[in-house]
Design brief:
Layout lengths: L2 H23 L8 H12 L6 H4 E10 L4 E5 L1 H8 L6 E8 L5 E8 L5 E8 L2 E8 L13 E2 L2 H17 L6 H4 L3 E10 L4 E5 H9 L12 E3 L5 E8 L5 E8 L2 E8 L5
């Protein structure tokens, strides 16, 4: 081969290699549909955290709110150690929420801690917020629980929900709430910037008496629970879409924890 041809060949090879390097450095394209994003993200959380760069925005935020603390992780690199554990096992239905053009918002559920609920917000095909309610203390390790369609369980949940809705009104009292909440019941609301907590019917009345209009979105989701207990989730249209987890023992609500996607 002549020196001229060798020079041309070097240019071609070098140019091809450089182009390959540039292409490999480009970020993967964002998901074009919500189903595509969820499928890829489920795979990432099932033990392939390297895929998080394709599903989360660079400043995408994941929070986990336990009964005693909220932990926060910002960006795929910070979230990766959690996803590497493969602890997210989806269960129950996905509930889609209204969203602006170019955005997706939805609620889904996982088996963790007897039934965990997560509120999601994606912008331009990448996850911007991923906020979860984990119904236990951060040091606990409850058994996993699948969603259930047991007719008796669903009937009991529907009855409790109806009674709760009737008790949350502007003229409610601690005595009215005491007919549905246990004396040591806790209601909490996790906002984007802080959590608020109310204890017992006398404490919960401060927020229940505000008479906030809340319409249910989608169906209730009930989880498997020990004998004599009920665990379920309800999505409402408060603040564009909020999710609450409930626990009841012997027909009385003991926990009522909510995620509200606005600042307090």
């Amino acid at each position: 081969m002549s020196s001229t041809m060798r020079g041309i060949a070097r240019v071609i090879v070098t140019g091809t290699t450089a182009a390959a390097l540039v292409l490999s450095a480009l970020p993967a394209a964002a998901a074009s549909t919500l189903d595509e994003l969820i499928a890829l993200n489920t795979q990432a959380w099932a033990g392939e955290p390297e895929l998080l760069d394709q599903t989360y925005a660079q400043d995408g935020t994941h929070t986990a709110t336990f009964w005693d603390v909220t932990t926060e992780y910002v960006g795929p690199a910070a979230i990766a150690p959690l996803a590497d554990l493969g602890w997210v096992v989806p269960t129950g239905p996905r509930i889609d929420l209204p969203a602006a053009e170019g955005e997706w918002r939805w609620v889904d559920f996982a088996t963790l801690a007897g039934g965990t609920a997560c509120l999601w917000h994606a912008v331009d095909g990448r996850i911007a917020r991923h906020d979860c309610l984990v119904p236990e203390e951060s040091r606990d390790s409850k058994e996993r629980a699948e969603a259930t369609d047991d007719a008796a369980v669903l009937a009991s949940v529907e009855d409790l929900t109806h009674r709760l809705n009737a008790a949350w009104r502007s003229d409610t009292t601690a005595d009215v709430l005491g007919e549905i909440y246990a004396p040591d019941a806790v209601h909490s609301a996790r906002f984007l910037d802080r959590s608020r907590s109310y204890e017992g019917p006398a404490g919960i009345v401060a927020v229940a008496s505000q008479g906030l209009p809340m319409a249910q979105v989608g169906d209730l989701t009930a989880f498997e629970a020990p004998e004599g207990e009920l665990a379920w989730a309800q999505v409402v249209d408060l603040a564009g879409g909020s999710v609450c987890l409930f626990r009841a023992v012997d027909g009385m609500v003991t926990r009522h924890d909510c995620l509200v996607p606005v600042h307090s």
